[in-house]
Known about the structure:
CATH topology of the domain at 1-75 and 154-160 and 188-251: Rossmann fold
Structural class: alpha/beta
InterPro entries: AAA+_ATPase (IPR003593), ABC_transporter-like_ATP-bd (IPR003439), ABC_transporter-like_CS (IPR017871), ABC_Transporter_VariousFunc (IPR051782), P-loop_NTPase (IPR027417)
Bound molecules: adenosine-5'-triphosphate
Strand order of the largest sheet: 6-7-8-3-9-10
Largest sheet: 6 strands, mixed
GO molecular function: ATP binding; ATP hydrolysis activity
Number of helices: 10
Pfam families: ABC_tran (PF00005)
Radius of gyration: 18 Å
Protein name: 3-dehydroquinate dehydratase
Distance between the termini: 16 Å
Strand content: 15-25%
Order of helices and strands: EEEHEEHEHHHEHEHEEHHH
CATH class of the domain at 1-75 and 154-160 and 188-251: Alpha Beta
CATH architecture of the domain at 1-75 and 154-160 and 188-251: 3-Layer(aba) Sandwich
Keywords: ATP-binding, Nucleotide-binding, Transport
Amino acid sequence: xxxxxxVKKRYGTKEALKGxxxxxxEGKIFGFLGHNGAGKSTTIKSLVSITMPTxxxxxxxxxxxxxxRLEIKKRIGYVPDTPNIFLQLTAMEYWNLIAAAFDLEETExxxxxxxxxxxxxxxxxxxxxxxSFSHGMRQKVIVIGALLSNPDIWILDxxxxxxxxxxxYDLKHLMKQHVEQGKTVIFSTHILDTAxxxxxxxxxxxxxxxxxxxxxxxxxxxHPGQSLETIYLSMIGSKQEEEIGGRVDEQ
Length: 251
Ligand SMILES: Nc1ncnc2c1ncn2[C@@H]1O[C@H](COP(=O)(O)OP(=O)(O)OP(=O)(O)O)[C@@H](O)[C@H]1O
């Protein structure tokens, strides 16, 4: 279980997270939703300790991220919001780099690369420089890298962005498989159909504040006949704020 306690993040004068407190259960798919600038990436970057919160604490199974950073990082596979990294490396060199960072055993690494590169139909291009790849292909390279260590916790920032329908389908399938093995998947998305289809639990953010944290099924039950998209849009709308505040307090 991951617990965020009153996490605040300030960039200069901009308060990106205004005291976020929420719980991410183990063995579930957990989604972060919110408009542009709501604080999804900041929260995700805080979880993977790329960004240090200005104040507040994050606990992984009771261990404070501040004190157990390296140990916790080893448990995480991270897909950033942009795949434009390590562009001068080939896909294979990038995966080797990740494998070395996680101390992966050679045969296990080769097996994982073989399976995942075949699944995402990128095997033939694995010795090409990432720079020469399309956005979707770069995304596939990063996704494969994040899965190589078979992490307990997979954290993906808008992972479906730019993927073709087959790759998006395969990735969603992998996310489901991951939780079936008792592992945890955390991701952000703007695609509400995907969130409805995939997520067990959600956090909806608005301008750095939490306006819902809880199960998708409960949310849908409370709004019979409505899609997550309709519910989300009405929650985000300012007219609904009082009601939403009530719901958060109920958590
Ligand atoms: N490095 C930074 N320096 C200054 N401000 C930042 C920085 N990173 C994010 N912000 C600001 O913090 C707020 C939250 O940004 P964040 O990227 O977390 O939002 P998001 O919900 O992921 O948005 P999107 O859906 O557009 O990716 C925004 O107002 C953004 O401009």
